[in-house]
Design a protein that fits this description.
about 170 residues, alpha/beta, Rossmann fold, 7-stranded mixed beta sheet, 4 helices, globular, binds adenosine-5'-diphosphate, binds magnesium ion
Length: about 170
Amino acid sequence: MAVSDRARTLVLALPDEAATVALARRLAPALADGGVVYLRGELGVGKTTFARALLRALGVGERVKSPTYTLLERYHVNGHPGFHLDLYRIAGAGELEWLGLDELDAPEAIVLVEWPERGAGGLPPADLEVALEHAGAGRTVHLTPVSTRAADWLGTGPCGGGAGMN
Ligand SMILES: Nc1ncnc2c1ncn2[C@@H]1O[C@H](COP(=O)(O)OP(=O)(O)O)[C@@H](O)[C@H]1O
Ligand SMILES: [Mg+2]
């Protein structure tokens, strides 16, 4: 990971829910072969909206429920294991043990985590950080690639291309 990649945060305005969904759809193909996304931001900011749209764009046909109570929902995503976590209700990473999170470490796993800060130490490292915040009636999103592959997803890495976000 190049240190400079961390500084390459893209900031985008998401004026309405449709914009959040469109961004998730645009990023989805980059995650099709696996990746870990941390979704940050307060309650009601759109983390589940983003995760749901991303999983649906990758072909998940079943209903994508919020894992608010279950902590973890599993999906089959075109032959890849998919995981959607919401750790709002846990007190610390120690509570993750019974969930059997070893599965999340597979490079081909598609892992979307709401409230990742509550699972610190028990989660695979993020490829991409998606931080949402309120901006009037809409939202602002900060996209920060952490891994080299994520920099390529956004088109900010040495290979460019990606989703052409820059
Ligand atoms: N860009 C946006 N602008 C305005 N409202 C949005 C936007 N993105 C999502 N929302 C709305 O935010 C609300 C809460 O979203 P949700 O995904 O449940 O939040 P979280 O998972 O962060 O608690 C939903 O009603 C959704 O329609
Ligand atoms: Mg949520």
